[in-house]
């Protein structure tokens, strides 16, 4: 499996953010997308996920335009956007269970607790997500990666934002494990 960008371009209003973006990502590859604020990093990631359309070019999954294999492609993808995407009224562990169910990989309450524990959220597992800090909310969202090791493509928008150094190191080990198992990762970050 490969993800290919072919002649991608993005225009917002009268402004062209980028054009002629070409790349191939294969098993075991990671790609860091860099750029200043407003340069189109998030727009590119959303195009790669099929959430928005390029003004030119196409995104291909194993040489087929993703618009022609939308469901099959979505099943091979985990996308974590810049916002945490957690539901405020749910408990932290409930958020992990619900996102896993919605992605077609149901998990138990105990598995959700274990994932949260590995990210240092043992004390917060039974709290409503609205009561958590930004960093804790980010870790709740990131917990789903631990159940997505068989999902080949991870696209992560600013996954390290609001995380302490210990959690950054743990997240890097999760990403390394995914890549070593033949996964692919595309991510943005402003951090070193």
Write the layout of secondary structure elements.
Blueprint: E1 2-12, E2 15-26, E3 30-33, H1 41-49, E4 56-61, E5 64-65, H2 70-74, E6 77-80, H3 92-102, H4 109-118, H5 134-142, E7 153-157, H6 165-180, E8 184-188
Parallel strand pairs: 3-8, 6-7, 7-8
Antiparallel strand pairs: 1-2, 1-4, 4-5
Helix pairs in contact: 3-4
Strand content: 25-35%
Mean pLDDT: 92
Q: What general form does the structure show?
A: globular
* Helix/strand class: alpha/beta
Biggest beta-sheet profile: 4 strands, antiparallel
| Main sheet strand line-up | 2-1-4-5
Q: Share of helix among residues? A: 25-40%
Number of H/I helices: 6
Low-confidence stretches: none
Q: How many β strands by DSSP?
A: 8
Please give the alpha-carbon distance between the first and last residues. Answer: 29 Å
Radius of gyration: 17 Å
SSE order: EEEHEEHEHHHEHE
Task: Name the features.
four-stranded antiparallel β-sheet; 192 residues; alpha/beta; four-stranded parallel β-sheet; 6 helices
Your description of this structure?
It is built from 6 helices and 8 strands; from the N terminus they run βββαββαβαααβαβ. 31% of the residues lie in helices and 26% in strands. The chain has 192 residues and is an alpha/beta fold. The mean pLDDT is 92. Strand 4 and strand 5 (64-65) form a beta hairpin. The protein is globular and about 45 Å long. The strands form 2 sheets. A 4-stranded antiparallel β-sheet has the order 2-1-4-5, covered by helices on one side. Strands 3-8-7-6 form a 4-stranded parallel β-sheet, with helices on both faces.
């Amino acid at each position: 499996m490969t993800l290919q960008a072919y002649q991608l371009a993005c225009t917002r209003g009268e402004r062209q953010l980028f054009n002629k973006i070409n790349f191939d990502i294969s098993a075991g590859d990671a790609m860091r997308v860099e750029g200043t604020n407003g340069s189109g990093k998030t727009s590119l990631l959303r195009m790669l996920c099929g959430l928005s359309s390029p003004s030119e070019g196409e995104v291909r999954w194993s040489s087929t335009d993703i618009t022609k294999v939308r469901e099959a492609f979505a099943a091979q993808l985990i996308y974590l956007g810049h916002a945490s995407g957690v539901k405020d009224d749910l408990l932290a562990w409930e958020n992990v269970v619900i996102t896993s169910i919605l992605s077609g990989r149901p998990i138990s309450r105990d598995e959700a607790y274990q994932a949260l524990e590995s990210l240092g959220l043992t004390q917060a597992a039974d709290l409503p997500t609205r009561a958590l800090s930004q960093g804790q909310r980010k870790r709740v969202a990131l917990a789903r990666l631990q159940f997505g090791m068989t999902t080949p493509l991870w696209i992560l928008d600013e996954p390290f934002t609001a995380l302490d150094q210990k959690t950054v190191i743990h997240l890097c080990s999760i990403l390394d494990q995914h890549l070593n198992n033949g996964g692919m990762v595309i991510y943005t970050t402003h951090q070193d």
